[in-house]
Write a structure and sequence with these properties.
Blueprint lengths: L1 H21 L9 H6 L3 E4 L3 H5 L7 E2 L5 H4 L11 E5 L3 H12 L5 E6 H8 L2
Length: 122
């Protein structure tokens, strides 16, 4: 019995750690297509090479490691909705944290490129 409880705690802890470190992908309760129709800024935080291989229509490319430095070139309004995505959701999670640390208040992690394509029917 004690082994089962320990195993359960280990699995729970690993799940929480994975979500914290690598992001959890998109928030299912947010209507991303509606936000985009209303003018949300969509940012692909993958590399320029990945972006040139395909991206969401209308998205701009700002690498996750420079986004807090370069975001003001594209959006100064810190309350405007911003949707970030990448290959798997990890870099977009890091970008979301960077933007929030820079004072942006409505940043949504769209998760992976594939999730976004599916969500938007692209």
């Amino acid at each position: 019995m004690k082994t089962t409880i320990k195993l359960g705690w280990a699995v729970l802890t690993m799940g929480l750690l994975t979500n914290l470190l690598f992001g959890g992908g998109t928030n299912k309760e947010i209507d991303i297509p509606a936000l985009i129709k209303e003018g949300a800024l969509v940012i692909d935080v993958r590399s320029a090479g990945e972006f040139s291989g395909g991206h969401i229509d209308g998205a701009i490319n700002i690498s996750h490691n420079v986004i807090s430095r370069d975001i003001a070139k594209y959006e100064k309004n810190k309350s405007k909705p911003i949707i970030v995505y990448c290959r798997s959701g990890g870099r977009s999670s890091a970008a979301q944290r960077s933007l929030e640390s820079a004072g942006y208040t409505h940043v949504i992690n769209g998760g992976s490129f594939q999730q976004m394509r599916k969500l938007l029917g692209q």
